[in-house]
Amino acid sequence: MLAIATLLLLLLADASAAFMPPPLAPGTRPAPRCAPIPPSGASCAAQRGEGVALNLFGWGKEASPKGPPAAAVSRELQDLLIEGQRSGGDLSEEQRARADELVTTLAASPVRWDPALLGGGPWRACYTKGPEPKWKALTRLLPFAKSRAYQDYDTATQSVTNVGEVLGDALKVQAFGTYKEFDAKTTTPKDYEVTVTRGEFKLPGGLSFGLSISGVGYQRVQYADANVRVFESINTTPTEWEREGLVVVQVPEAALKAAGV
């Protein structure tokens, strides 16, 4: 227990940056770029959706004449991640390889952007690709607790709550903030400016204490539909809570609950 308590204190020592989005240097903005692992032969222009037929939830023309529609790919990825959550959150080597393929395909499949795609209640982080984030250690601190990391966007107020559980809902770190569009693009990838205003550490019995968490940063939505959301960290936070190149795939809590996980 002493080792667990020590690790928890070390994690909370970084809490000022736990959910703060990656900051940029003063006066700078994130430059548009390709997906972290672009498919062979795909240009940046194609990934940005320039001159590409769009597909929203599988309606209309596909973004690419080859392969299944993006909605079918996202559905397969959701099914794969739900199975992973049912097995404790870890995928086999074969499953990870397939998940990587699906994520890469979606990142290279521009869809028309609808801000409502950020809503829909809590979305759980079910898969990460690239540098492992420190917040993932929170959810693994007590493996028997089946803890989660999730986000909940309120599109009406443009506010967001980030949660990293330690002992299920009873013991968790939360960060609260607001968000707004950073660019005027109408397709993915789509960048957002996020301002984190405060945080708290919630204890059993309804007790909590505040955490000094604040700052402005940016996040990139590589892909989003009703099945999955794919986010990318644009650059590294000062405490390396999240590092540049990290890709996080989220699944709606409603879908996970319906599947019994």
Secondary structure elements and pairings:
Layout: H1 2-13, H2 44-48, H3 70-86, H4 93-107, E1 121-129, H5 135-140, E2 149-154, E3 159-167, E4 171-181, E5 190-202, E6 208-211, E7 215-224, E8 229-233, E9 247-252, H6 253-258
Antiparallel strand pairs: 1-2, 1-9, 2-3, 3-4, 4-5, 5-6, 5-7, 7-8, 8-9
Gist?
With 261 residues, the chain is α+β, with helices and mostly antiparallel strands. It has helices at 2-13, 44-48, 70-86, 93-107, 135-140, 253-258; strands spanning 121-129, 149-154, 159-167, 171-181, 190-202, 208-211, 215-224, 229-233, 247-252.
Give structural notes.
- The chain is an alpha+beta fold and 261 residues long.
- Helix content is 23%, strand content 28%.
- The chain is built from 6 helices and 9 strands; from the N terminus they run ααααβαββββββββα.
- An 8-stranded antiparallel barrel has the order 1-2-3-4-5-7-8-9.
- A hairpin with a 4-residue loop joins strand 2 and strand 3.
- Helix 3 packs antiparallel against helix 4.
- It is globular, with a radius of gyration of 18 Å.
Helix proportion range: 10-25%
Supply the helix-strand structural class: alpha+beta
User: What distance lies between the first and last C-alpha atoms, to the nearest angstrom?
Assistant: 28 Å
What share of residues are in beta strands? 25-35%
The main pleated sheet reads as: 8 strands, antiparallel, barrel
Shape: globular
Q: What would the keywords be for this entry?
A:
disordered N terminus; eight-stranded antiparallel barrel; 261 residues; single chain; alpha+beta
